[in-house]
Each structure stands twice: as structure tokens, then as C-alpha cells.
Amino acid sequence: MNWGIINKRSFSLFLFAIVSCCYVMAIDFTKGKHAGEDVIVISDGNTKELIAKSGKTLFQVQAKYDGVVTIESSSLSEEVGLVTVFSSDYKTIVTQNLHRKEDAISFISRAGEVYYIIWQLKQDGIDLKWSVKQLEEKGISSSNAVVASVGLMEANHTKGYDSWFVYTAEHNGKVAFSSYGLTSENTCLFVYDKTCEVVVGSSNFTKGTLQSEVVVDVQKGEIYYIKWSNAFTDSNYKWTLAYL
Prior knowledge:
The protein has 244 residues and is mainly beta. 7% of the residues lie in helices and 45% in strands. The radius of gyration is 22 Å and the shape is elongated.
């Protein structure tokens, strides 16, 4: 990579990220204040006529669903500035984007979780109107995984998300999770234990194809999480769960 050539937009995002980090240090969430100003709490009654002011404006939203939160504005453009979403403990940047014209900014939410949205506007004298929308989306995270059963299932990546399933073993034995022979899509599969932290099997290449297959020795009553990744496809396809 030629480090002497830096994409202008990436460099702008980098600079704004530095500013964001400095801004984080100035926020006292225990009081719900920033520099003497109240954090604006987004409720069901004020989701469509929100205003971000020149400089920085801080909002708080609580997720209603395991699903997706979408930030929208007809005035988004790269010249406007940066929006950053933080987790409730303010240790994780959930998403960070330069405002891009005609683009919505979305992130996966967990029901009951609080998220902080910071608008950082470049220009003076701007009142940017924006809205926030919450939708329940089944199967896009482990927390709202679709219950799987023996037989034919379908993974769907058309909205740009992973496709999650959860399976409770009905008896001891070997179980195959497979898209082999069911699609021409380039699939990618991970199977986790009940903690959703330990990978017990993964695949993105099976029998000379771009399909996936994982065989797991399961124990009756144990829970397994199945993630079909959207890393290589934005389509939907069939897959099977079968005892061997």
C-alpha cells in the first residue's frame, strides 16, 4: 500500500474520529449533561423532527427491539460532518459514518440497550433535521436468532446482515449444517456453542464448491448457534439441518 496517497474521505473520517475521542472524555453521562447541556432523550413521541445543531449535539435512544435502528436525513452529505453511535457504557463505537447524501445510517440494536448518538457538524449556523426509526428484525444477531429444526431452512442476507439460527439438540449424534447442493451462492458458516463465544465448526468451502458444511457431535439438550455470514453474498439461499 502506498501510504503517501491517502483517500480524502478516509482522512476526514480519521480526523473526526480523533475529535470524537476527545469529545467522549468531556461527557458526564451520570448526570446526563455535557458542558452544562442536557442530553436529548429520544422517545416515541419525538423520533421524526429531531434537530442537530452546529458543532456537537448529543442524543440518547433506548432500543425497543432486537433489530435495527436507522438514522435518516434528507440533508446528509459528506460536507455536513460526522455521526457516531456509542454503546451505553461508552466503551464501544457501534458505528461511525460521515454523512453521505441519500444514505441512511443503520446499526444492529439489542432490546433495552441505550445508545448515544453524537452529531458533529462542520459548518456554523446549521440546524439539521433528522429522524430515527426502529424495526424488529428476526435473525440478524444471536440475541434474536431464528429457532432452527431438522429439515430445510433459509438464510437471508438481502438487507445486508448475517443470518442467525439457534438449535437445541433433540438427541445425541452427528448433525450436519449444510448449504451444499442447495445454492450457487458463496456461503460462509459458523457454528457456536451455547455461550455463542466458542466456535465448534466453520466452513466456506465444501467438496470443491463455494458452499458450506459443518458436522458437529451434538449432545441432547445442548444449544447451538448457527451463523450464516453475509461476508460473500447479499442474497438468500436454502440450507439443511440433518442428523447423520
